[in-house]
Fold:
Amino acid sequence: MRAIVYPSKISGSQVAPASKSSMQRACAAALLHHGQTKIFNPGHSNDDIAAIDVIQKLGAIVTQHADHIQIDSKGVHPIGPEMNCGESGLGIRMFTPIAALSSQSITIQGKGSLVKRPMHFFDDILPTLGVQIKSNHGFLPISIQGPLQTNDITVDGSLSSQFLTGLLMAFAAAGAADCTIKVNQLKSKPYIDLTLAVLKHFGWEVNHIQHEQFSFKPRTSVKEKIEYTVEGDWSGAAFLLVAGAIAGPISVKGLQLNSTQADKAVMNALESANASILIDQDKITIGANVEGLKAFEFDATDCPDLFPPLVALASLCKGTSMIKGVNRLAHKESDRGITLQTEFAKLGVTVLLEGDIMKIEGVAMIQANTVFSQHDHRIAMACGVAALRASGPLEITEAEAINKSYTDFFEHLVHLGAKVDIQ
Structure:
């Protein structure tokens, strides 16, 4: 798919997409809950669809309704020898320990960029929990056979917090009341807070000491029927908010300012960049300040998914912006540091990589050109946002990459008044 985005002024309001981070965790918790769960405002990105497919492969019964999905489960009971996590990094890292709760042998597959993402973590940790594992030298496919036996463990949290999310959910469901998980160098702590919030909603309470040691309380009596509403996605909304800052003003609805999502930190970057921000009870209105956007500094170590929208923002800020956390970008859908540097160079924007720091030199106008998504959803969206301030139409090839997280992205831009041709 090719998306051609034209220079556009945007206005109006848009509801943020559903959070796939919240949605996927809710699906996992619903699988582990013995009873019925209704999930309202469910997402429909490729990652969300993959999560629904996985929990069905692991024994849940999923029924689609007009405004929610219903999940009936008796715990982890795989119905076949294989499950496929699609291209979801969270999915593979979260559902692997959960699938290991079963004594049945199961092979875990993925596709696209996921087959190139390292999973050595499981080779090291799962055998210490009584799980047999065979991987492709630390990559997919992975074959496991449990049941997982909880005990005290220490894990490395420097690569991704998603591995810890899976262990926390599996340990909680297994009733690990006397066990602790110690974590070294944990990254993306807010995502663990989201995991703990979802677990608590479903009746599992996990305590922690400064995100370095986690302990589990026995699950108290829980209602057989649970309802959960997926909150708006700060990761996807970050692109809308940046679009508003460079080509608005617009209003974005459906975001929780008290959310545990790491990417709500985009508001700090936008404020530092001198965007005009008005926060009401039900919406955030954002536009360009009359004084113009200025260069900013931001630490994205705990929220690396903000790099793409913030590079789009920095491209149109006066001066050189600096974003810390480049080391978190290597194992995404693409090597995002290199990809952002490569694709934004085509737009006349200089992106420098200096160790853990990315420097972006702002320009007055984006150069019209053709860019390649690198099969990375966030790169496609970042280029789509930058195109709103280009010298002419900007073509994005392999633009269907957006379906991984934000299927309606280009439709939402059109709703706000942008001109977009899809071919």
In short: The radius of gyration is 21 Å. Residues 3-17+232-422 form a domain with the UDP-n-acetylglucosamine1-carboxyvinyl-transferase; Chain fold (CATH 3.65.10.10). The longest helix spans residues 234-247. The chain has twelve helices and 24 strands.
